[in-house]
Specification:
Order of helices and strands: EEHHEEHEHHHHHHHHEEHHH
Distance between the termini: 47 Å
Helix content: 40-55%
Strand content: 5-15%
Structural class: alpha+beta
Radius of gyration: 27 Å
Number of strands: 7
Length: 309
């Protein structure tokens, strides 16, 4: 690696580096920080050649990271552009604090461009979580997470309020519910049973450490019971799910909240046991308010002060 000359006034050094050496430099989320990286496509113009092979690096302690040149790298490697023997690199010193800020902001920007379920799947990968069920593996749990932590989906939240101004950090939320999600995944939850509202209600009650694995297993297996024309809580919840399904209302935001309320209601009755006067019932589930339970959940998990949860 040959250093041509330092440019201290600009806060960087200019280094002539072989293309092979440049390829070996580490790449992190911010490697595509320069989204307007079209420089390589003027490489065929002789007077701009030097410009087209100039890339930026950052140096943190003694480690180099690529900052720009992602699109040109792909073009050089796939033959769209001829590979240069050497590149001119601008190397900028960065503090560890600035480096972490850059990584965080670049990751946030990357996530903003993804649809919600892809953000969830990216969070799975970062947390090392592997789910086997189709219901969880495909990442369509964003709205259930919002209901479980705030009582309603993001589209229905009041962005003016302090508690709901900031969006939920999905990675933090998934890590918070990691054990609950793994337990549900182990049941191989059916998508037509564990709809958004049911999943949200299950997360709330599992997060409150309620012993409901058997309830969820029987619900998933459609094993509700009837007695003298009366239904147990599982049967009543299955009927509620079915009604939502045949009316094609399961995708409507407020209907998902309604099912979450009925899910926690059914669980609460089931936990009282068959001796309870409420256990066998003819009347439909009316639902329990979610926010008192969510407040208890946040206190139990010690996240009351977290504005992004």
């Amino acid at each position: 690696m040959e250093i041509d000359y330092p440019i201290s006034d600009l806060g960087c050094a200019v280094v002539r580096m072989s293309f092979a050496d440049w390829l070996e430099i580490r790449e992190l989320e911010f490697f595509d920080v320069d989204t307007g990286d079209h420089d390589g496509f003027v490489q065929h113009i002789p007077s701009l050649y030097a410009y087209s092979i100039t890339v930026a690096l950052v140096k943190v302690d003694n480690t180099l990271f690529k900052l720009t040149g992602k699109r040109r790298k792909e073009a050089w490697l796939n033959g769209m552009l001829s590979k240069p023997d050497y590149l001119t690199t601008l190397i900028f010193d960065m503090t560890e604090a600035d480096f972490q800020t850059l990584c965080t902001e670049a990751k946030a920007k990357k996530f903003e461009a993804l649809p919600p379920h892809e953000v969830v799947k990216a969070s799975y990968n970062e947390l090392g979580l592997v789910f086997v069920s189709e219901r969880l593996r495909n990442g369509f749990i964003n709205e259930a997470i919002h209901i479980a932590l705030r009582g309603r989906q993001r589209s229905l939240q009041d962005k003016r309020s302090i508690r709901e101004r900031e969006d939920i950090n999905m990675k933090k939320a998934i890590e918070l519910f990691k054990n609950e999600l793994l337990l549900i995944d182990g049941l191989l939850p059916k998508s037509d049973v564990f709809t958004t509202g049911v999943l949200a209600g299950a997360l709330i009650m599992l997060g409150l450490n309620k012993p409901i694995t058997e309830f969820l297993k029987r619900l998933n297996d459609n094993q509700g019971k009837t007695k003298d024309g009366l239904g147990d809580p599982i049967e009543c919840l299955l009927k509620a799910i079915h009604r939502h399904k045949i009316s094609q209302r399961t995708m409507q935001p407020r209907m998902a909240i309604d099912l979450a309320k009925k899910t926690v209601h059914a669980i609460a009755i089931w936990l009282e046991g068959e001796q309870s006067a409420k256990y066998w019932r003819m009347r439909d589930l009316t639902g329990h308010e979610l926010m008192p339970l969510i407040m208890d959940l946040k206190q139990l998990k010690m996240i009351n002060a977290e504005r992004d949860l």
